[in-house]
Amino acid sequence: MSNKVKLEDARRVIAAAEKKAAEIGQPMNIAVADEGGNLVSHVRMDGAWLGSVDISIKKAYTSRAFDISTKDLAGHSQSGNQFFGIHASNDGKIMIFAGGIPLKSDGKVVGAVGVSGGSGDQDHAVAEAGAAAF
């Protein structure tokens, strides 16, 4: 496997995530970002919330920018914790809701997947399915 997220990789991640979203009956927005946090590909499943397009892309960016799942970052960013206020950084591009997961090649983060459109648990489960296909 290459250490870059190519379009074919993004399509494979999205296909696996779409399959999981269909299984749980929740249409999703699914975004894949490269090592620089740039969007490689995005899909809005039929019936998925329009407002979640932006959120899915920002979850992928956030997960890559900090090399952490957004679910874990959410815990660290609550009041009194070390990353409280982080969502205000990076010109508002930081999303601290579950659904963003880093994509790794040879132990190194090379991109991320971001999913939005359901509950936090649903978003995270769909993102996990996508990341597993990477």
From TrEMBL:
This is Protein GlcG. Gene3D superfamilies: Haem-degrading domain (3.30.450.150). InterPro entries: GlcG_carb_metab_protein (IPR052517), PduO/GlcC-like (IPR005624), PduO/GlcC-like_sf (IPR038084). It comes from the Bacteria. The lineage of its organism: Bacteria, Pseudomonadati, Acidobacteriota, Terriglobia, Terriglobales.
